[in-house]
Amino acid sequence: MMMKKLFAGLLFLFALNAVAEEELLEPDKAFAFEAEVKDGAIQARWDIADNYYMYRDKIRFEVDNPDIKLGEPELPEGKVKDDEFFGKVETFRGSVEVSVPIESGSGPFELTAHSQGCADAGVCYPPHRQTVNLEATEPAGSQNGQAAGDKRSIQSLNEDLGLNQGDDEVLAPDEAFVFSTERVDANTLRMNLQIAPDHYVYRDKFEFSVKQGDARVGEVQLPEGKSKDDEFFGRIQVFEDEVSIDIPLQRSSKEAGEVELGIVYQGCAEKLGICYPPIRKSETFNLPATESIADDTAAGEADAPATAAADAASPGSGGSGESADEAPQSEQDTIAASLETGGILVILTFFGLGLLLAFTPCVFPMIPILSSIIIGQGDRITTGRAFTMSTVYVLAMALTYTVAGVIAGMLGENLQAAFQNPWILGSFATIFVLLSLSMFGFYELQMPAALQGKLSEVSNRQKGGSLTGVAVMGFLSALIVGPCVAAPLAGALIYIGQTGDAVLGGMALFALSLGMGLPLIAIGTSAGKLLPRAGGWMDAVKAIFGVMLLAVAIWMLERIIPDSVALWLWAALLIISGIYMKALEPLPADTSGWHRLWKGLGIIVLVYGILLVIGASAGANDKFRPLHGVFAGAGGGGSSQQQSLQFENIKTVEDFENKLAQAKAAGKPVMLDFYADWCIYCKDYEKYVFTDQRVIERLDNFVLLKADVTDNDDKDKALLRKFGLVAPPAILFFGPDGEERRGRRLVGAMGADGFHDHLNMMSF
């Protein structure tokens, strides 16, 4: 009974079946959330619908304002429940109120509440996030002088205690920096700051973004500031007295409309020796109709803040090595620009690009998935039905890619990345294991007859007994199996993000997906044509695809488990498969040639599995090179550790800007690598490109930064959005002047030879 409920829960998690007669509530309705700031604490409340409950230990909070520090949430006691998924846990029903102390900080912030709950119908929702905008106020009588670097002197401490003498009074931020804006024309806004005496504003802390409206911020040219030796940031530029900054807009519509501009800046009171927290402002403007739409593909950072770092490459800055006129265009930008021409030729081009992507590592696992659906029909399958099922699978996959891509282009949110978490990947891998066991015919050996019949019925239905089940598998395969980004996909997303043209961009994505799926249709149809009739051959074919499904399950788990554990799983799969292929059994003298060939293949599989065991025991982590480095130290006294590039890890936009500023001060170029554990191409870069000796030598003078976006949390998304990216892999290059060489940006897979040639084309 427990197995049946677990399987039903997994099927719900992936929307394979409705498990209740009534339609389940949306998470925000089942667990309605609200919060307010009161008496120096956040008072959060969930109103939980009838027949639903929440887990106490799944509740946590975070804020997006780094100046605000939260204390430990004060949770009431819950009701102990013997949960079939998590064991004995505490739960809440009806409502729950949580107090979260605000230990320090003030200003507006976005509160994100994490939670997870279930319905009594036996269905558990995935972990859920709910956000609300709040504002924290500093307690009376205190001044928070914390800023970047926590710059604060004894004088500001005296101010907190009321001990300062004379007229040295800390001004309120809006008094120290009087803020105003105006509209210059249909495509330009202006920000003005009147700066109080003995105060200044950092030139490189300005950020501009369009929060709402059909426009985005173009390249902002900041005026020259006054040089200053700062004890924390070194030689910097600041503004004193006053500053006016023109903010160009790239509009995606010629029609009149409304935009909300967001502005961030930061300043200090020099005489008192304190710095203010970053100040955030927003202003709404009514823009008149315009004659033309600004086209700035080179900027290319859709929905990204325009920061002062970009100003480092202004004319006369020097050190770029490539002028704006000579700078090449990256592959994804070229593809994005080609969409502007429109026409059937562009759609056909994307279809051809999809064909080229059909057998990449992120698509190849779909072959055994689709083939197992066909094989699962047994002798009931016909060529026509195999073609129909394959087409339905590919169309569902293509539609999912298209919808997910349009959402990613418009909002910068990657749906596929959201599905790359241990719960979802582990559950989906479990389904593959269950389906593979049904192909081996093991249910009757391990389960009661009644449960075996019911589970077999469910398994057969999901393996293709209905076209709906096939479509569901296509939908899930697109979301979970292939999350990596290639240059054609990135180009389409850039075009959608810059122009807002979801129709043409979506058509290109659909054509790309159909190109990727065409070989799948051919393979699936062939499986129906060549499928042997019932008998011993059929059992052997089903066993082969059962092994392939287990391989797909391990391939998915590789994203969330250590490499050494994955190597042991591959070894176990190969060794057991070799034994089943009778690699260790003697053959009778009259054995046919086919049986001898089968045993020979079994011996190869068994030996390779043993090599994987040796490699795993010696600390290897590459299934394709299990003995690489194992014997490197024998005889020659060499090290078994393979040399590889050493990266500095960054997490936030601020981390990157600080590292970039340091590299610029040292006159060094920067390479920024976007990585995730669930990105197959990223791991290929780690194993085969960043260990290549030529690449290591070529990057010897570079500052190497790595942004690990595995968690896909708000900080990861903000960093991706800053550069107009939706998912890894992506490798960005910045010159000694701090300016990105966008034309040298890499998105998607590349081998060591191609990467080395790519580096040699750069002039720094």
TrEMBL record:
GO cellular component terms, semicolon-separated: plasma membrane
UniProt feature, compositional bias: Low complexity: 298-315
Keywords: Cell inner membrane, Cell membrane, Cytochrome c-type biogenesis, Disulfide bond, Electron transport, Membrane, NAD, Oxidoreductase, Redox-active center, Signal, Transmembrane, Transmembrane helix, Transport
Matching Gene3D superfamilies: Glutaredoxin (3.40.30.10), Thiol:disulfide interchange protein DsbD, N-terminal domain (2.60.40.1250)
Reaction catalysed by this enzyme: [protein]-dithiol + NADP(+) = [protein]-disulfide + NADPH + H(+); [protein]-dithiol + NAD(+) = [protein]-disulfide + NADH + H(+)
Major location category of this protein: membrane
Entry keyword DNA-binding: no
GO BP terms: cell redox homeostasis; cytochrome complex assembly
Superkingdom per UniProt: Bacteria
Cysteine disulfide links: C118-C124, C362-C484, C679-C682
Positions of transmembrane segments: 344-370, 391-411, 423-445, 466-496, 502-523, 543-561, 567-585, 597-618
Domain Thioredoxin: 641-764
Keyword Nuclease annotated: no
Spans annotated as Disordered: 298-331
Pfam families per record: DsbD_N, DsbD_TM, Thioredoxin_7
Secretion signal span: 1-20
InterPro entries to which the protein is assigned, alphabetical: Cyt_c_assmbl_TM_dom, DsbD_gamma, DsbDN, DsbDN_sf, Thiol_diS_interchange_DbsD, Thioredoxin-like_sf, Thioredoxin_domain
Localization of this protein: Cell inner membrane
Annotated EC: 1.8.1.8
Enzyme class: oxidoreductase
Functional description taken from the UniProt entry: Required to facilitate the formation of correct disulfide bonds in some periplasmic proteins and for the assembly of the periplasmic c-type cytochromes. Acts by transferring electrons from cytoplasmic thioredoxin to the periplasm. This transfer involves a cascade of disulfide bond formation and reduction steps.
Family that this chain belongs to: Belongs to the thioredoxin family. DsbD subfamily.
Name the record gives this protein: Thiol:disulfide interchange protein DsbD
Species this protein is from: Thiohalophilus thiocyanatoxydans
